[in-house]
Design a protein that fits this description.
4 copies of one chain form a homotetramer.
Chain A lengths: L8 H20 L2 H8 L3 H7 L3 H20 L9 H18 L1 H9 L6 H28 L7 H14 L1 H6 L6 H14 L4
Helix pairs in contact in A: 1-2, 1-4, 1-6, 2-3, 5-10, 7-8
Chain B binds a DNA duplex (21 and 21 nucleotides) through helix 2 and helix 3.
Chain lengths: 194, 194, 194, 194
DNA sequence: AATGAATGAGGATTCATTCAT
DNA sequence: AATGAATGAATCCTCATTCAT
């Protein structure tokens, strides 16, 4: 029997956990429910994960990595600032659309249990922040954008990114990532003055 | 027994709940702990609130109202767009600074229990969104700002507002609300092109 | 309502625990069963004891103390050796008869959980051993008994004490403590030679 | 596959069980741990033993038999009483010294699971008791020892035997079986009067 | 009105045992 | 015969809620 054709048991637990955790949140998710969703017995989860906490942590880790991978920012550095923002935002919106439930956990679940996971999550946020700040600094140096507080601009850009989650994931608003990214980038670049 | 006594008891429960909920989150907060923090017996909470959920909901409601009141947006409508944004953002940042723990609950806790509360919270968000959209529409009509998708601009502005929470509440960054709001408003108005 | 007339709740839990633990042993005893035996709810036990382990430990402690108190060895020091042994053995046998289930826990349950409790139980055993050794040393000094290894004599005497548990508690042998103690003491004093 | 291979596998399970059971006691011993100690798979134990209980029982049976065999009481009947007691006690002490962990199980673990095993263990105890009583009766008949309650003397002797377990197995006291047996026998024979 | 002792539903986790390979 | 992945019954413990005082 070809195992590769069937989801490995660990993978199906992760998939089930992803679904249940992102729908119910960490506390209201029941291990039993995850097991049922994975089509396995309760005890089997503990063959692959030592605890509910650890399962959640691993799922978070995978999810966040999947987000970064989805951005696919290989040679983004060579592009002009405008393109960069546009590409990043497009990817971000795409990710929201494709991972409605998941993205809640990834971008909004602050009430995480483990101190360790909390720190890790904060570090990730700061890293993202730093990356954006760097991009901005480069572009200021390039003369692409006018001199301004890079940290504050980074907040503006990343806050804008984040703000799309609720309309997409909760209100099920239909958004075209490409067009939306274009418009937002235009506003950021040119402002809103007539 | 006069009413002021009774009122103060309910208020002290709310104050205690505010403190405990915002520090530990809904799930990790214990009714006992809230009672102790309020200096009353466990059972007494149930004289004033029918359940943990309802207590949380009421506290959320109060907190969000306190936020709106803190913005003090009475005659904001008569001001030019720039001032409006600046005032709103200043107030918002001020609120973060003065209510670090609380603001997490108010702006970030999505993992709320009751379906009812969830809907209410979503409605609030949409109202805010709508309010901002309206302001934008007015200002476009006024000619204060150029014609652009008001919904997307609203996302940009409100996302920017929200993005300051983590640095202030988690990273304890020191931010001057006034100056910060000025810079951000300038970017929104004029863009970042050289 | 006069509380003193009713067993305090804690006492009834201890009594119930005593019964269940001594019948089933620590591992096979169920908290629920103890609660039922105490005529209370499961959760109530945890109002008085932090865990199953701690409940067991406290019961052991009480039981062993009750044994020592039952011996009532106040002014035993002034009696001749023969009387002392006889009185101690009589008391010991009496205790077995009156506390069949309990005595198993007190004298035989080696498979105890907590390292702490184990150490405490071992210390008690050694103390008993020491006490007996001292009595023997005194009596040798008195010339009441001939010079011999006091440690080994202590083992003999205390082993003899212990050996009555199984016949009394398990086989339900009927034994008259007074007469039995007399006979045993006679053997110890005079030996078995014709 | 020859039988010697199979036999060695069963033996290695027994050896592993012996080790784990005597170190941790029945309840805290894990089948997995026994399997690992035996160098085999968990499931394999069930090829040779129907359950944890049955494995324990078989190990107990073997252990107790090994104890009796270790006493090597072939033609002990022809010896005088003094020698018999001395030889039995020497062997007993020797067994304690050589089987510190095991002897706990064999002589002290009352908290056994199966009713069946409990009965078997009790029967063994009574048999030992009876054997000793018989020896005593013979010796009284012989005129080797004076007439006295044989049952009580048996308790004294066997209790003395048992009392050495704790000092040897727990306190790691160093004891010379031969000398110790001699002294104890002397006390039993001649008493402790000056 | 206020209390806190009592409750028991609910849930994470363990581990002996099974069974497909 | 040997295995170990899978299972789910069993159990401790928590904590929101109740209610007698």
């Amino acid at each position: 029997m070809d195992k590769s054709h069937r989801k490995s048991k660990k993978e199906s637990i992760i998939a089930a956990g992803l679904q249940v955790f992102s729908q119910k949140g960490f506390h209201d998710a029941r291990m039993e429910e995850i097991a049922v969703a994975a089509g396995i017995g309760k005890g089997t989860i503990y063959e692959y994960f030592s605890s509910k906490s650890q399962l959640f942590q691993e799922i978070m880790s995978i999810s966040i990595n999947s987000y970064y991978e989805s951005l696919d920012i290989k040679n983004i550095n060579e592009l002009p600032f405008k393109e960069r923002i546009q590409i990043l935002l497009t990817g971000h919106l795409q990710y929201y659309i494709e991972n409605k439930d998941l993205s809640r956990m990834v971008f909004w679940d602050v009430e995480i249990m483990d101190e360790e996971l909390k720190e890790w999550s904060n570090k990730l946020r700061k890293d993202k922040q730093l990356l954006m700040t760097e991009i901005i600094n480069q572009s200021i140096a390039n003369g692409e954008i006018r001199p301004l507080n890079p940290r504050l601009l980074a907040y503006l850009i990343m806050g804008t990114f984040t703000s799309f989650w609720a309309p997409i994931a909760i209100d099920a608003e239909i958004i075209d990532p490409e067009t939306t990214a274009e418009i937002i980038t235009d506003i950021i670049l040119n402002g809103i003055q007539p």
